[in-house]
Design goal:
The protein has helices at about 1-5, 15-25, 30-60, 65-70, 75-85, 100-104. It is mainly alpha-helical. Helix 3 packs across helix 5 (about 75-85).
Length: about 100
Amino acid sequence: MEMMEDANLGTEPGESRFRQRLWHLTLAPWASRRRRELLELLDRMNPTIEELTAAVEREARKRPEVLRRMTHPGVGPLTALAFVLIIGTWERFPRGKRSAPTWG
C-alpha cells in the first residue's frame, strides 16, 4: 500500500518512481513475466486513453451544463459529462425523491 500513496505513474515508460519500484520488486518467474506483460499493455493503451480523454474534455467544454457541474470540487470532465448525458436536467423528475432510483 505504501507504493500507491506516492505513486507518480507518469506517461513515458520507465519515467515514474512507481514503475521503477515495480521493476525492482523480487517476484517469482511467472509473476515477473506477468508484470512485464501488464506494463507493456499499459504502454500500448496509454495513447488510446489519452485520445479518449481529450475527446471527453473537448465535448465537456462545448456544454455549459457540464462546465457548471465541473465547478464542484472533485468533479472533472468525465463525471460531469456522464451526469449530464445520463441524468439530464432536473425537470425530468417531478420531485427530488423520484431521482433516487436513477442513482442506484
